[in-house]
Automatic annotation (TrEMBL):
SUPFAM superfamilies: Ribonuclease H-like, RNA-binding domain, RBD
Pfam families on file: RRM_1
Cellular component, GO, one term: nucleus
Originating species: Psilopogon haemacephalus (coppersmith barbet)
Superkingdom per UniProt: Eukaryota
Name this polypeptide is given: REXO5 exonuclease
UniProt keywords, alphabetically: Exonuclease, Hydrolase, Nuclease, RNA-binding
Amino acid sequence: QEKSSCLSAALFGEDCEISHEQLYELLKYAALGKSHNATQPSWCHIYHQCHLAGVVVIILHEMSQLHFYKFYLQFKHLRRVFRHRFTLTPSASFPASLYGEGTNLKPQNTAQGILFSSTPPKRSRLQRNPIIRKYGDKKQGLTSYTLTLEEQKKNDYPIKGSPECKGYIYTECDQQRTDSSPLFGLDCEMCLTAKGNEVTRVSLVDAQGQCLLNELVKPETTVVNYRTKYSGITKKMLLPVKTKLADIQTRLKKMLPHDAVLVGHSLNSDLQALEMIHPSVIDTSLLFARNAGRRFKLKFLAKAVLGKEIQCEEKLGHDPAEDARAALELAQFFIEQGPAKVAELNLEMLLTAERLAESSQNKAPLQPQGCRVQKQSTEPPQLPRACFLDCLQVTGQKPLLLGREDLAPSGLCQSNLNSSNKQILQRALEDVPQSTFSIIQFSLGPEDIAAHPLPGLCEKVRSKLTDMLTIYAGPFEESFCLNSVKKEFGKCGPIQSLTVVTETYQPYVCIQYEVLEAAQLAVESLNETEVAGSCIKVQRPVTAALLDCEILLKELELDIENEGVIYVAGLKKSWTEADLQEEFSQLKDLETLFLPKDLQSGKHRNFCFLKFQKPQSAVDALEVLSGWTVKGSKLRTRNALASGHLWRWMQQMKHSNGKQGGSISDEKMEQLPDSEKDLRKNMKKLDQYIKKLYRSLQSNTFCVVLFPGVN
């Protein structure tokens, strides 16, 4: 999970599984960016990597996917915060696959020490950065970044009372500025006239980026050069224009509050052309300071800092509203993040890299932050020979490694014996905020692992899933039609098995579905309805394992992975994805349609999942689709319960070894063995530790939690 950042990847079906090599790609790029041969991962995309404050990897030693779903209710924080989940394919050497080749890692399962390193030293290069020299490294309010009167004079700003500004209009915005004063972005386009530079277009945007003014202006004198390549202005555009400079001056004066702060890039040129004086300005060409009086171009800053492409060559001239908005967002970024964060972007290095790339005729010298996900390579990614933890040390960043196992290469860490998860957490809370790359390992005690071997846990989870997928319907008449029952219940989703229960006074039918949504839909829509000539009840089996079924189903429905996702059943197997796309095209904000296939026959199933861009759009779609008939087939819908990841994992669980039926002991929770109650407590405690650690992280920290299993 990235705080305030976005990792995009497809989460339905096969895309939920990744290899350790792919995980390595992700961590290496998150930690190093484009240096040391690190590239965007082949299977997903990290946006704004240069803005990441750090990378934290939390390893839950000897715990697997099985533990996550067995103790799903206990992992309350983990499942609510971490939006993306993937199945990791097995690896013979987990630490080596995590750190890459070239490490001398030899895991020693008997070690009982805590590993740590000294916190990384502050990089001296930051202290030499002109931004740090000018503003210091502490965050400050916006008034600290407005130009002083001396700075305005030095940079040719119109000054009140100056002989050169005779006849200029004063905005009369004389109210004292505070750090909460409103910001406005301003930009003008000029043409060359007999008089000099005259305004031909003016744009003003507010702090939310809303365009308040975007007006063409008729120059007072004859135009000598329209500068169309840069201004976008043509003779034809100005022919019908009646607005004069005086009109714009009056409107701007009325629009600006008395404590307004104007933001622009080389704003002095705009104010000179407008023949206006304003006392409080932020100039982004000076804010992002460089040595020797040089200045970054707005186009470069927008791309390197905001990840935005502006002033594109395909467009005719600049868009002043776009430029005003870019300058405003740059100032907002600087104020919110502070000088130290801006200095860490290392803009000089990015500019040098861009120029080198341009000189070698690279068409994409500085990759914009918002580019699309790269297409997955058909070739398996090759691990680099060198460990990227070593690369971090070369750049002056010393990785932080904490845990009971011997995680680190020699020389990285020291050892401190007899440490508990609680001690590891305390150390992590102190040291992780100071480190750019941290690996924290929590583990269960040997007694927990010994008391709960994996085969036993696996059987309990499989048994509970089977019970949740199973419903009983009845009673029916002695001569009822089984095909009618199968047809009606099949409209809720794919049926795994259907058997008649004859031990009862009247016949009942036991139906086991393939997906959770189908079973729940049957309970919700067919209970106390007439099926095959009988008014029936529909219910799940009553076992100790299902006493918390309603709570579990509710939590699954609220799972962050199911946000904006609905389940649709009652489809005809002959329908293609294209047919469904056409049928559902009128649904607002539909983002993805996932139509599963039968693993054996390869045919489409009679259900699908729809994912919407907004949760409310999913709610609206449920209302629209309720009772909707498509080509004679009535659809049944509900909120999704099993995300693509869980759905795929359930299929694997059902087809794995062991009996399909059965249930946990019928004793209640209070009568469970002390060891199982202790294990639940310990899982809950681990979730609390992760919660505390997560909350201590800086914004824009990339955080990964791994359940590596025993292999």
